[in-house]
Every structure is written in structure tokens, then in C-alpha cells.
Specification:
42% of the residues lie in helices and 26% in strands. The chain has 295 residues and is an alpha/beta fold.
Length: 295
């Protein structure tokens, strides 16, 4: 493979970002044919197809999407340097892309991104996906960070992912405020019904262990893996739930629900996952360090 031509890479980057060959040629003051030739030369030198061409339209290939992520890092840093040299200031806005597990508590996500909301020099995007799709997004450099309550499998030996525990929330029994049970579990819990996370979740495993230690058999009315759905069930069903109070903090503040008691030595863990070979924006590093201190 020939050495990477950054001039050609810049042309590819502009076309990929703008999405229009004619417009980019006009902005760069070169002919459209010359621009097209140089992008094809980049593809030839790298021995990859970056665009799928259909008539006048261009669509990034999978490899093109991955190359674009690297080009974003390279040229965004270049623009930041140029801004610093000319104006003596850093680039005005830094952008990060965050992937969120579809079943994760939205209240936790909100608390995690609060520092970003307060920073006028930062913009961000949130994308909810299933776990496998989140990891694909990291691998393809579509995402800078993934938030999840599930760590990457321990049998993954390819050293691709970096997992950081950013928070742990104590698990509690939560129910209607008007019907609060004041005795310690399992006393007084014989005739109640439960809405619980799915059997494969960390929360359910902790609750099952507690029940087994007391030989208590819960009467399960409903199960839900999605924290947003579990929140609604806890609010509207009249049954008791087991979850971190952060999930239902609004309902507790409004007096609809109340924390009956915390489960002993039981927590839900929240993780931030990044791709080790991916350039990590400085604002993201600072965010992770901030949550590491809070943990």
C-alpha cells in the first residue's frame, strides 16, 4: 500500500462531511472531475472502496465510515490547531457521540451528561441501541463512548474495549408511599406483589439471592428489562419494585413512591466503554475522570 496522501484524505473528508461533490469542488476552487479523480486515487492507494456510486449520489461504504471517523479526528484537531495559532484560542465547540443501552435508566443517563449540558463549548449526541450494535458503533468509530449496566464479556480477549466503572447505585425496595411497609424484609412482605427486572439482570440476581437467604418466594406480577418500563410499572401497578432509586427519583420527589428499604450489599453498576484504539476527545476524558472521582 502506498503511503497515505493526506491531501487526498482531506478531499475525501470534505465530500463525506458535506455529502455533495459539486459543492465541495466549488468551496475548494477545483473542478469536480479533479476532485473525483483525487478521491479515486486515495481509494486506489489504500486498496479500498470509500464510496458507493449510484449516478450522481455518493454513499459511504462500511470502510468509508471507518475512514471518516479517523479523518474527523485528524482534521478536527488540525482545525483546532489552526484556530489556536491564528486566534490564540481553542476550537469553540467539541462534539462527542454517546451510545446508550436501550434498557438503561434515562435518569442515570441524564445525571451522567449533566456536566456536558453545563459546558457551552461542548455538543453531544445520544443514540440508544442494543449491546451488540453499541459495540459495532465503537468499532466503526461512530461512537466515542457507550453507557451500559453490562460490562463487556470477560472472555473477550482482543483488547479492543476499555471498560470503566463510573457509578454504582444501591438497590432498594420501592413502592406506593401510602402503603409503606415499616418492617425489615421479609417480615410484612407475605401478601405483596412485585414488578421486577428480568431474570438475567444484575438487579434480579441480587434480589433472588436475598430471597433465597430468607426462603422467601416473591409473587411476581410483571417483569421488565427496560428501566423506563419498570419505572412506569412501579408507578402505576401498586406493586413493589426492586431498583435503584435514581430510576424513580421524580416519583419519590412527588410523593407517589417511597423507598421502603435498601437491599444489603446490593448494587447496580454502570459502565463507560470506549474503544482503546480510538482517539478520545479531551472533554470526554475529563468527563470520565469526573465520574471516576464521584464513584
Amino acid at each position: 500500500m502506498s503511503r497515505l496522501n493526506y491531501h487526498h484524505l482531506f478531499y475525501f473528508w470534505r465530500v463525506a462531511v458535506v455529502g455533495n461533490l459539486t459543492q465541495v469542488a466549488r468551496e475548494l476552487h477545483i473542478s469536480q472531475s479533479a476532485l473525483s479523480v483525487q478521491i479515486k486515487q486515495l481509494e486506489h492507494n489504500m486498496d479500498v472502496a470509500l464510496f458507493e456510486r449510484s449516478g450522481r449520489s455518493l454513499k459511504l461504504t462500511d470502510m468509508g465510515t471507518r475512514v471518516l471517523a479517523y479523518a474527523n479526528d485528524i482534521f478536527s484537531k488540525g482545525e483546532e490547531l489552526e484556530s489556536f495559532l491564528i486566534k490564540g484560542v481553542e476550537a469553540e465547540i467539541q462534539h462527542i457521540s454517546i451510545g446508550v443501552l436501550t434498557t438503561l435508566s434515562r435518569n442515570f443517563v441524564e445525571s451522567f451528561i449533566t456536566p456536558l449540558l453545563a459546558d457551552p463549548k461542548v455538543s453531544f449526541s445520544l443514540t440508544a441501541r442494543r449491546m451488540n450494535n453499541l459495540l459495532v458503533g465503537l468499532a466503526n468509530h461512530e461512537l466515542d463512548l457507550v453507557l451500559t449496566n453490562r460490562p463487556v464479556a470477560l472472555d473477550n480477549h482482543d483488547a479492543l474495549w476499555q471498560t470503566q466503572l463510573v457509578s454504582r447505585q444501591p438497590l432498594s425496595i420501592v413502592g406506593p408511599k401510602a402503603n409503606k411497609i415499616h418492617t425489615t424484609f421479609p417480615q410484612g412482605y407475605d401478601d405483596v406483589r412485585w414488578v421486577l427486572p428480568g431474570k438475567a439482570t444484575e438487579i434480579r440476581s441480587a434480589f433472588n439471592s436475598l430471597c433465597a437467604s430468607w426462603q422467601y418466594q416473591p409473587d411476581v406480577k410483571a417483569e421488565a428489562d427496560d428501566m423506563a418500563m419498570l419505572r412506569l410499572l412501579a408507578r402505576d401497578s401498586g406493586a413493589l419494585a426492586v431498583l435503584p432509586t435514581v430510576v424513580v427519583k421524580d416519583e419519590i420527589a412527588q410523593g407517589i413512591l417511597e423507598e421502603y428499604q435498601r437491599l444489603p450489599n446490593a448494587f447496580e453498576h454502570f459502565y463507560a466503554i470506549t474503544a482503546q484504539r480510538k482517539f478520545v476527545p479531551e472533554v470526554l476524558l475529563a468527563l470520565l475522570q469526573q465520574h471516576q472521582k464521584k464513584k
